[in-house]
């Protein structure tokens, strides 16, 4: 038996297999066109000649003149040369009916784009180009770094939109702070309200007063959304004890939230309607990071151990959890009494979180009081100082916290000298605004500002305010999968706005 198996293995090893599929007619046509490309690129008339039938004629019409070449006349135009380094070729389309076919192809040189239309036929000797018509145009030249940004409203009528998540280039989820969670198709201009949002949401629709932050906040897709349809939502919840920030996960099915799971509730409850936090982002490690605000409006209401400095109080912190709500084993240790999932502390009212995919660092925005608005880099077990220190001023001028001697505080990488109220931020990585690659784009509520920051490692080198003569309250900056840049305006007639580079 062993000899039989050995003999079979030797036969399999030493004899070729004939099970490979024969090339399709399309593949055969593409082989002919590729021979034409190779001959054209190097002046190889042998390759060009083999791709063309003897009866082939080549025609073009340019500058009011019609030109006709026979195969021989056409080949005489070529001389051998090296293939240009910047030459590209592309088969745009192929159509086949029996032994006849047509193809559209492009040949791009440094200066010109040639577009050819081939008629092809299959003979006993294979596929040949029977004739060709072509056109040529000079490439449009422009400075890829030239930028002139303009706004284009894609959608309006949103009720103070807070967050946007791209399910695809054309389909997004948008959370309205004072409205619904909606799905919008950018191509078809269709809007659908997502059903099943929890009924314990606290909003400011029925009871509104200035500065009320209650409502729906962030919407984030699971990193494996295409397979599991999980989304993550933060919002202000309420019950008989008061209000607080709540984080949930749900499966999005049939335009409805299903299998809702509570991941985090930021006790203790409070009847204050300010500074919930609610920013969320997935890190490069696949963990969910989110912010919880301190909830106080004025420092005069701080307890002796300030909220954001109390590891047992869930408020005024940033958290890191697994996607199912469990706590990662490698989370920093703040002690046995610390809130579960605690990652960093000393936070007043952080809303924006974003991942710098170049460094895998998470950056976040922080609301100050009078000035004191900041941009920070998130580090584990860091203490960002509130309210022990601030780059601005306190609302309650007499506030003087008792020093906590063992604490070490982390300084922001940027702070403004005036109030900006920074919100959702994003590291730009698209091609439309080429000179902005790697820049941090930050929206602001105060005075409706939009900022572009040049970043070098963990340092902000400069900051430019965009659209200073056309301000809107900006809640969120986001980028589509194909690199288009969008902002959400914080208004009762809120807008989804695309930023376009009209210099290109």
Short description:
The chain is built from five helices and 30 strands. By secondary structure, it is mainly beta. It is elongated, with a radius of gyration of 31 Å.
Protein described:
This protein is mainly beta and 504 residues long. The chain folds into two domains: 25-138, Roll (Nuclear Transport Factor 2, Chain: A), CATH 3.10.450.50; 149-501, TolB, C-terminal domain (Neuraminidase, 6 Propeller), CATH 2.120.10.30. It has helices spanning 2-14, 25-42, 45-51, 71-75, 225-228, and strands at residues 52-62, 65-70, 88-97, 100-108, 112-123, 126-138, 149-158, 161-166, 171-176, 181-185, 190-193, 216-221, 230-239, 242-253, 256-265, 277-282, 288-292, 317-321, 342-345, 350-356, 361-366, 374-377, 414-415, 422-427, 440-444, 450-456, 459-466, 474-479, 485-489, 494-501. Strands 2-1-6-5-4-3 form a six-stranded mixed β-sheet. The protein has a four-stranded antiparallel β-sheet with strand order 7-30-29-28, with no helix packed on it. A four-stranded antiparallel β-sheet has the order 8-9-10-11, with no helix packed on it. A hairpin with a 4-residue loop joins β10 (181-185) and β11. α2 (25-42) runs antiparallel to α3 (45-51). The longest helix has 18 residues, at 25-42.
């Amino acid at each position: 038996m062993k000899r039989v198996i050995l003999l079979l293995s030797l036969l399999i090893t030493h004899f070729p297999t004939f099970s490979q599929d024969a090339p399709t007619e399309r593949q055969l046509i593409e082989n002919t066109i590729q021979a034409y490309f190779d001959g054209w690129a190097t002046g190889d008339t042998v390759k060009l000649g083999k791709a063309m039938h003897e009866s082939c004629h080549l025609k073009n019409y340019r500058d009011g003149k019609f030109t006709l070449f026979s195969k021989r006349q056409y080949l005489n135009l070529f001389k051998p040369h090296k293939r240009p380094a910047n030459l590209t070729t592309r088969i745009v389309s192929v159509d086949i009916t029996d032994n006849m076919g047509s193809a559209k192809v492009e040949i791009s040189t440094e200066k010109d784009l040639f577009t050819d239309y081939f008629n092809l036929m299959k003979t006993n000797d294979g596929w040949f180009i029977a004739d060709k018509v072509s056109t040529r145009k000079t490439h449009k030249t422009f400075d890829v770094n030239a930028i002139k940004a303009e706004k284009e409203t894609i959608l309006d009528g949103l009720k103070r939109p807070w967050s946007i998540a791209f399910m695809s280039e054309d389909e997004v989820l948008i959370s309205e702070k004072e409205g619904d969670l909606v799905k919008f198709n950018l191509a078809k201009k269709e809007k659908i309200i997502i059903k099943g949002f929890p009924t314990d949401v606290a909003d400011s629709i029925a009871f509104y007063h200035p500065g009320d932050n209650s409502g729906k906040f962030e919407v984030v897709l699971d990193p494996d959304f295409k397979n599991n349809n999980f989304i993550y939502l933060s919002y202000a919840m309420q019950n008989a004890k008061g209000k607080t920030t709540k984080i949930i996960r749900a499966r999005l099915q049939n335009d409805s939230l299903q299998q809702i799971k509570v991941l985090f509730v930021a006790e203790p409850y409070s009847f204050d309607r300010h500074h919930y936090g609610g920013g969320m982002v997935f890190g490069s490690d696949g963990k969910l990071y989110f912010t919880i605000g301190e909830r106080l409006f004025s420092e005069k209401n701080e307890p002796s151990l300030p909220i954001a400095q109390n590891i047992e109080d869930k408020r005024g912190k940033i958290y890191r959890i697994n996607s199912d709500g469990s706590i990662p084993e490698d989370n920093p240790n703040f002690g046995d009494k610390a809130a579960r999932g605690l990652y960093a502390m000393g936070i007043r009212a952080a809303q924006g979180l974003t991942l710098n995919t170049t460094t895998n660092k998470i950056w976040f925005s922080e609301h100050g009081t009078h000035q004191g608005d900041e941009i920070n880099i998130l580090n584990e077990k860091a203490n960002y100082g509130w309210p022990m220190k601030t780059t601005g001023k306190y609302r309650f001028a007499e506030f003087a916290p008792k020093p906590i001697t063992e604490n070490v505080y982390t300084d922001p990488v940027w702070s403004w000298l005036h109030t900006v109220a920074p919100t959702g931020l994003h590291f730009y990585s698209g091609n439309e605004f080429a000179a902005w690659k790697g820049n941090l784009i930050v929206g602001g509520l105060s005075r409706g500002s939009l900022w572009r920051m040049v970043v070098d490692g963990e340092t902000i080198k400069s900051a430019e305010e965009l659209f200073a003569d056309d301000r809107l309250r900006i809640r969120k900056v986001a980028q589509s999968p194909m690199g288009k840049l969008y902002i959400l305006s914080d208004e009762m007639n809120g807008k989804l706005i695309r930023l376009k580079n009209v210099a290109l």
